[in-house]
Design brief:
The chain is mainly alpha-helical and 238 residues long. The chain is globular, with a radius of gyration of 18 Å. It has a domain at 70-232. It contains ten helices and five strands, in the order ββαααβαααββαααα. It has helices at 70-81, 88-95, 98-113, 126-129, 138-144, 149-155, 183-188, 191-203, 207-214, 224-232, and strands spanning 34-38, 46-49, 115-118, 161-163, 176-179. Strands 3-5-4 form a three-stranded mixed sheet, with helices on both faces. Strands 1-2 form a two-stranded antiparallel sheet. Bound molecules: zinc ion. Zinc ion (ZN) binds next to helix 8.
Length: 238
Amino acid sequence: MNYDSLSVPLTSPISFGTGFASLLGGSAAKNGTSVGVADVSDGPPAYVGIEFRDSCPRLPETGDPVDLSQSNTQRYGQLKTTLTLTSTSCTAYFNSSPSRAVIYDEIAPAVGRQKAFDGPRTRMSRFDAGVYWATATEGDRNILKRAPVRQIFAEDKGVKAAAQGVRFPNGDPASSVYVNTNPLALSLFSPADLLHEALHNVTGDSDSQLAGRLGVTVSRTDTTAISRVLVSNGCAPR
Ligand SMILES: [Zn+2]
């Protein structure tokens, strides 16, 4: 679901408790709470803080994507080389459906240009980073201007990555992936996950839209069917 404005009543499964101080424009005085929300990418909804007083100290509202460590950048590059997009089974799988066939030729170039960043350390807003779906409303985008990328990983420790789903302002294709650098999450990030994120870069699809394109179903809290179908069709190693 998407919310058009902050006046929409909050309902389950939206949870409170994201630290107010961790939000863009939030107050370090910890006298407020966070409200949401925009549900516009992988992982939990975006939250923004309510502003109570102009005098409260503010956190920075900008920043660049934070690079991965050199060793993690190297490892990410190695994961790319293990993909098997041109295998007979993967080629057949993508060409067996019009909605997949139309993107097949774009996937390898997208993997090639994909660049991974450190999600939990990136303060840049999700709007500036383009980490949302192509179908986001103007209301969603306004919320995302105040929701930092790192909030995605603070709210749900199990999220492995979040992809850029919309083009850069200069028209360049989406190519960024924000990886969860928590050691456990990072150790679980697989070649199929990398491909999953590349498909977001190419399509701007939400998880449920992407799942439909790939012929599987996902739930809000479990999108592993996407990576599984890529493995079972020989596009990525087990
Ligand atoms: Zn996804």
